[in-house]
């Protein structure tokens, strides 16, 4: 079993990093010996879509005959997802949605004719489903009765991951981090972890 572990927070001491690490630990508890592939966007950020890549994606013709090398990086990121039995993504909420560095990764892995097919009914995912665990940290509250802001993060990630064929998405969140001390944050992590079954279907 292979776990792809991605972190998108720019902060080293980060709530979403602690939660994503705890998710990986739980997965390793139920699948001892699993390997972990790491992508840390604070250390190695995914660049925004550049000219040749955007040109390749600009029409069916250019996609069929892309500028040389323009799809190589995208291909390597997609293969990391394909090689994973489970994907764990730690992400902060930045301005109601994902940080731009995670969006940059999405722009590389959600690619027409490779991870989805366009049909008159919408995108059809071409990847085999596998569980995706999203560890979210938000300074304020975006879900439940105490929500004080809209949430464009969870519906967005459900839509883009679902477009690739990744339908089994679990959201775990530590919310209101601006007001949590260390003990409260640890408790919030435990509460989030308790909402999910970490057994990965073979
Ligand atoms: C640029 C930026 C935008 C943010 N926007 C929001 C927001 O829209 N809603 C929110 O609840 N918190 C927002 N925050 C606060 C972070 O979500 C919060 O600090 C969270 O704990 C960050 O995750 P981390 O601890 O994993 O780094 C923002 C923080 C930054 C740096």
TrEMBL record:
Keywords: Flavoprotein, FMN, NAD, Oxidoreductase. It is an enzyme of class 1 (oxidoreductase). The keyword Mitochondrion does not apply. FMN binds at residues 9, 14-16. It catalyses: 2 a quinone + NADH + H(+) = 2 a 1,4-benzosemiquinone + NAD(+); N,N-dimethyl-1,4-phenylenediamine + anthranilate + 2 NAD(+) = 2-(4-dimethylaminophenyl)diazenylbenzoate + 2 NADH + 2 H(+). GO terms for molecular function: electron transfer activity; FMN binding; oxidoreductase activity, acting on NAD(P)H as acceptor; oxidoreductase activity, acting on NAD(P)H, quinone or similar compound as acceptor. Binds 1 FMN per subunit. Transmembrane segments: none annotated. Residues 1-190 form the Flavodoxin-like fold domain. Belongs to the azoreductase type 1 family. This is FMN dependent NADH:quinone oxidoreductase.
């Amino acid at each position: 079993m292979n776990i792809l572990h991605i972190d998108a927070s720019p902060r080293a001491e980060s709530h979403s990093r602690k939660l994503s690490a705890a998710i990986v630990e739980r997965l390793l508890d139920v699948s001892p010996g699993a390997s972990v592939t790491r992508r840390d966007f604070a250390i190695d950020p995914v660049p925004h879509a550049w000219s040749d890549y955007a040109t390749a994606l600009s029409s069916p013709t250019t996609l069929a005959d892309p500028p040389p090398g323009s799809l190589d990086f995208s291909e390597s990121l997609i293969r990391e997802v394909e090689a994973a039995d489970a994907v764990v993504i730690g992400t902060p909420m930045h301005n109601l949605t994902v940080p731009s560095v995670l969006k940059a990764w999405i722009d590389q892995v959600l690619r027409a004719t490779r991870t989805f097919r366009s049909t008159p009914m919408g995108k059809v995912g071409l990847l085999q489903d596998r569980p995706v665990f999203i560890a979210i940290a938000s300074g304020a509250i975006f879900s439940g009765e105490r929500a004080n802001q809209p949430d464009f993060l969870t519906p967005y990630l459900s839509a883009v991951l679902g477009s690739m064929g990744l339908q089994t998405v679990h959201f775990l969140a530590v919310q209101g981090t601006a007001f949590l001390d260390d003990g409260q944050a640890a408790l919030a992590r435990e509460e989030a972890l308790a909402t999910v079954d970490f057994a990965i279907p073979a």
